[in-house]
């Protein structure tokens, strides 16, 4: 049984990957972009509604929780620490790649 179409799955992966890039650019360059914060909370993410697969929902929540933590670090001036929390092997990075896999599986 498939929980979502391949197009929905790709769109959700794309949204989060792009958001990650924008967040990292913001932190690296040292500015604050509140448009990025609009989709920071899981409840405000456009993908939340379409995620029916239980595993996707869990990983999605983990990703957003990690993202919120990084945002807090970034806006309180702890840019180095914020970037460290985005590095490979962190909860942020691992939940994002696991979410990508789960989204692809959910569309099969
Ligand atoms: Zn999301």
- Summed over residues and divided by their number, the pLDDT gives a mean of 94
What is the helix tally?
5
- What percent strand? under 5%
Measured distance between first and last alpha carbons: 7 Å
Radius of gyration: 14 Å
Q: Shape from CA axes? A: elongated
Number of domains: 1
What would you call the quaternary organization?
Answer: single chain
What is the H/E string? HHHHH
Structural classification: mainly alpha
Ions, cofactors and other ligands present here are: zinc ion
Summarize the helices and strands and which ones pair or pack.
Elements: H1 6-29, H2 34-37, H3 54-75, H4 79-84, H5 91-106
Helix pairs in contact: 1-5, 3-5
Zinc ion binds at residues 16, 45, 47, 60, 64.
In short:
With 108 residues, this protein is mainly α. 67% of the residues lie in helices and 0% in strands. It has one domain (6-106).
Describe the protein's architecture and organization.
This protein has 108 residues and is mostly helical. It has one domain (6-106). It is 67% helix and 0% strand. It is elongated and about 45 Å long.
């Amino acid at each position: 049984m498939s929980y979502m179409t391949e197009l929905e799955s790709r769109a959700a992966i794309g949204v989060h990957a792009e958001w990650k890039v924008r967040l990292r650019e913001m932190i690296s360059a040292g500015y604050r972009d509140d448009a990025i914060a609009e989709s920071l909370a899981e409840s405000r993410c456009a993908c939340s509604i379409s995620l029916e697969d239980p595993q996707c929902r869990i990983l999605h929540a983990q990703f957003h929780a990690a993202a919120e933590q990084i945002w807090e670090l970034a806006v309180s001036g702890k840019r180095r620490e914020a970037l460290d929390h985005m590095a490979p092997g962190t909860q942020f990075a691992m939940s994002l790649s696991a979410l990508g896999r789960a989204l692809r599986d959910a569309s099969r």
